[in-house]
Please model this.
Amino acid sequence: MMETIYTAIAHASGGGRDGHVRSEDDLIDMQTRPPKELGGSGEGTNPEQLFAAGYAACFLSAIHAVGRTLGTSTTDAAVSASVNLGSNGEGGFGLSVELHVYVPSVSAEEREKLVEAAHQVCPYSTATRGNVEVILTLVD
Model:
């Protein structure tokens, strides 16, 4: 059993994708709207955008943590996450993720080791492993 060190609490109301989300501490407080690709107005955020933002921030933190452990500079590192929503072929939906990782302060070989190690310790990577396809793309 995992020892909990922090709990984030968020609430969704209204129609889910067409509603409202709010974190318990009110730091997140926004309308959600389906994207135009799903027949919505696209005039609010959506769960995939929120997931992408969280994964990108979490993975960047993992890169910095692994960099400190390895004594590797992660200066100016950045991560962009693309979260794809699609049919799972069984009547439901699934996600896939592509992380574009930029770590300009290290060699290509060091960058690959750093990103692979970060993928092993990032909580989002751990949560999705074996269930969501995650592609790591190193950006020069």
User: Anything to note?
Assistant: Residues 41 and 104 are 38 Å apart (CA to CA). The two ends are 39 Å apart (CA to CA). The mean pLDDT is 96. DSSP finds three helices and six strands in the chain.
